[in-house]
Amino acid sequence: MDSSLRSAAKNGDLRFLKEAVSLQTSEYFLTKTPKDELGGLGGNIFHVSAWSHQEDFFREAIKLLPEHDLKRLLFQTEDDFRYTPLHAASVKTDASHAIVKLIIEFYNSITQATNDVDDDVRKPWLALTHDNRMPLHLALKDDKENEPCALELLALDADLLSCTIVDDHGCTPLFYALQNGFNQISEKILMSPLPFASIFRDKDGLTPFHLAHDCSDNIWRLLFEKCVDYMDKTDDQGFTVLHLWAEKGEAGPCKLLLESDVFGELKTKIFTKLVYATENKMSDTPMHMAARKKQSELAQIMLRGYQQQQASVVTAENQEPVSVECPPWKIKNNAGNTPLHTALYVGSSHEEFALQILSIDPLSCQIRNNKGESPFFLAVMSGCARAADEILKIEEPRFDFLRRNDGQTVLHCLPSCPENIGRKLLEKYWWMINLTDDSRKTALDKAKEANVLWLVNLLTNPSLIQKERFDWIAACKREETQAVLAFIDHCQDLQRACREVNDTPLHHIKLLTHQDYVNLLQISSIKELKNTTDHEGATPLHRALERKDMLLAKVLLLDDGVERTIADHNGRTALDLLAKLCEENDDWENMCKNIKVNPYMKTSYIRSGTNLDQIRNTLSVVAALLATITFAAGFTLPGGINGTGEAVLAKKASFLVFLLADVYAMCTAILVLFCLIWSMVSEPDMARLLVDRSVFILMQSLYGTLLAFMTGIYTVVAKSSLWAVILIFVMCSIIVISAHRKILHYVIAKFIPASSTNAERQDQMQSLEEGNAGPSLARSLARNDTSRNVE
């Protein structure tokens, strides 16, 4: 193409056009310009004027050039993209509509003049470019300002309404119309009675539902009617239409479905199937996507739609809703986040959606993500005060809900919380103040880093916090070991706290390893509680054996300070329970053998932790003394001996009783000495048993000695002074009866006033230890302890 002609077409130079028509031949105008010469698209003069928006030049050229030249020029394709002037005019320009009309008017004029139309000019609006695009494709490719041009093309041919021509991008005209918001075009195509296009997916797997944007309600209804089979299709990224709507904020179609009474099958598909669909990258469901994109309205519509569908699905017999194990708001993505987690991550701006989930399913607050973050933790971290408060109303969060995998607790997140919520959490979880995260930072360190003055002040002065009571018994039952250990570490008066509830953490706590229990018992406040009884009279060893906690039982059995013979209210000692377990399970019996504990051995007088050496020394002295006395009494007989060396009273019954009692006392005393000797070289349990039995045998020796004394007196005095004998018998009998331990304790407490005050308190403490004390007594003792501390 001549450069002057190209310049005239580009700039709209009508004067040059008129001169050229009068001076040049047809071949001059039929030439083309290549693409690179213009720095854009090339072609003939009509291409160039169309690219350059020169409507007047285009019109004047049609008037001046002969018809046979116009047929060739107006329907000629340029070499690079095979665009005709109609294609070029269909691309959005200010003059597009006018130029398109000029081409159509010329086509109509030549078709009306003759029925014999050349093949190369037949229906130019159906001509295809190199990428298989018609002019209608190009007219719809841009924004809605080009809609008049598209309507002009669509009015030319009814076949365009059902056009199935797909360009190389996999799109039909309907796709472009829906994607760019050409509502009139979309409505005309969708309402056409002609056979509908069968191609509903582009090369990326997108359907009209994926592409539709800013559409009217009527267009959505038409799509729901005609394209229902494509509603559940996904694109190459695994996105369903719900994912796309969530990403674009298209709440309209979901709302339309929810409020409609017509599309029952489609509603079921959307709200019971597609809400569970996950995309390929993060496995996000549409609810995740809506939460992340802050599309609260759409997220809440999906929730209501799901509930509506579940309410409508009923059983045939009892008309009750069918239960669902995992509703869509509990589905986790690859990060372990549910839609509730995602909504709370966004912050308070999306809190309504989170609150709606909590109102529908309160138990959803119990789910943790891969980082160990619970919804409560995220609510505190993101400053969602209402969500945090709502979760606290639902239930008391477990300790693992208060702490994530890196060790940070909710108290570490308080700098991002409102002060009122922060104070409330400090009052509730004061016992976590000293807990550190993996970087060894406490909540105070985080508060200082964030320079939150009110928080720094409270954490620096914990006495300013109004502390709520920590239910450590419930925490133990929930196996929240770390929480209980934190409470033990932070509690300044653990014994008092235990007395108030007549229980101890050691009765309930469950740890993972043997060493954990060893470390626990090394804590001074816990060590003092190892023999304390609860309200049922059970010691920690009782409870460990009852729940078959072999690790704790082993640690307690190896501790010499743990008493094994305390009986609970049912009369069972820890050894009774251990013996039963050994009979039922060989593992327990093997454990007892390994630690050299005899579960069948019971002691009555010697408790675990008793200093055996001290008792052994005392018993040996008493036994030796009794053996000496009774041995001597055997040779200094009452009544003496006759000349032949025989006892004078040998045939008297009382003398024989004296003699037998004396021998019994001497033999038992000597037996005690033997037991004590063997106890020094025996195993600890056997040594304890021998010493315990020595106490009983020594009591028998004492009884024998008293009986020998009484019968000896009777033998020599009865005939001369019977009243004295009777008095002696009464006195000795009182001693024998009073020798019983319980009777002796009672007599001393009753008849020795100096010890009555202390004895009363000791009885109260003993009742508390045995589990017989009521709450009032426990509180009374606690108040007395407090008053003493004050004094």
TrEMBL record:
Residues 611-716 form the PGG domain. It is a multi-pass membrane protein. The keyword Membrane applies. The chain crosses the membrane at residues 617-635, 655-681, 693-716, 722-740. The keyword Ribosomal protein does not apply. Its main location: membrane. GO terms for cellular component: plasma membrane. InterPro entries: Ankyrin_rpt (IPR002110), Ankyrin_rpt-contain_sf (IPR036770), PGG_dom (IPR026961). It comes from the Eukaryota. It is found in: Membrane. Keywords: ANK repeat, Membrane, Repeat, Transmembrane, Transmembrane helix. SUPFAM superfamilies: Ankyrin repeat (SSF48403). Residues 763-791 are annotated as: Disordered. This is PGG domain-containing protein. It comes from Saponaria officinalis.
